[in-house]
Amino acid sequence: MPTANTGQERQILRRADPRVPGGQVRILSHVSNPVQVPSGTITLLFTDVEGSTRLWEAEPDLMAQALRRHDEILRDAIGQVDGYVFKTVGDAFCAAFSTAQAALTAALRGQRDLAAESWPIRRPIRARMGLHTGICEERDGDYFGPAVNRTARLVVIAHGGQVLVSRATAELLSHTLADDVRLRDLGTLRLKDLGRPEQVFQVEASFLQRDFPTLASAANGGTELTAGLPGTVATRSDVRASHADRDWVVEQLRIAAGDGRLTAEELDQRLEAALTARTYNELAVLTTDLPAVANPGGLVPAQSPEPKDLVRIQCSSGTSKRDGQWVVPQRMEVGVASGTVKLDFTDAVITDPVMRLAATVNSGTLIFVTRPGIVVDVDDIVVGSGTVKVRRHRGPAVPRALRVEVTGKVGSGTVVVRSRRRTFLQWLVRRPAV
Prior knowledge:
The chain has helices at residues 52-58, 60-79, 100-116, 146-156, 167-173, 216-219, 243-258, 264-275, 280-284, 424-430; strands spanning 12-16, 24-28, 40-49, 84-89, 92-97, 127-139, 142-144, 163-165, 181-189, 198-205, 310-315, 319-322, 331-336, 340-344, 354-361, 365-370, 374-383, 387-390, 402-410, 414-419. With 434 residues, it is an alpha/beta fold. Strand 4 and strand 5 (92-97) form a beta hairpin. The model is unreliable at 1-33, 218-238, 292-304 and 424-434 (pLDDT under 50).
């Protein structure tokens, strides 16, 4: 069995790659510790940091510091069981092990230590991991072959903090698992560009998160699931979806995110999958782990922040916004001289079914951005020379979460009630080219 070079620091080759901050890929050709390079039938461990691009964009200096610590943790976990790191690509690690048990031990140690770390960035580093066992061709310290491709496909469908293993690896681990570690069968998935489906297992341990959203492969139509959309029963997976079907799923995802059931990153991933979905199956799997209507009634749990009784907004000539997860008060008084006030309820925290708003709009603009389940009643506004525009939501009715009762006067200003505007991608997908 060949041995990696020893007695020297590892050599890192770099080549241009636009996917990696700094435009380079790091490829380890040598490692600093003496370790045998596994060959023949080996177990591969691939890791990747979830949402790393956003983390780099948000806090580039602190992210560089966090990534160095991430690398130290994973190198230590892999090195403790004589694993061989043969490549890193950005924040992703590729390691080889002589046994499946050693690979699993490294993965569990890595996840445990990553979870325990105090990170300098606002969001913790969460790594997804995939393990697969197979025969690989080793050449110049690197590995090639179908086993490498299958491991790479396995890790990309995982979520941060999740460890997935293939059936081949699971069979080798079945009689060697510790008492507090088990494998949960997630079913058989079709992985992108691979002809043979893969039976995928999730590693469970006391210190690991147990529940995750649908695997990314399923979210992109990779399985044979046939969960139905409204009005469909046992729909075949190859039946084409309509614009209305995609719209319905998009709204359910937004409601779920507003209720805290999906993270911002999960929402982005699922929205992209929904807007580009072609069949019922590709849409249905996006909501299989969500209620038909997330958090019926739109009310949040009792431990949520208490709403204020009254919030006043006075806007002269600038812009005042309430967006994101702001807590909707019981009453609001809004005065707009010549500026703009925008109240975006898309992700708002709703604790009461009714909010009363008294508005005085002189020559400015008052904008309400709604989502399904939120009704803005402007029938009692007294209008002078201004305008009141209400753009009703088009789509299936959902239970009412909030009713905003608006009273007051509009001079020469404007009051607008509308849904969130479509992104360019949404517009492009939903509307046919002219």
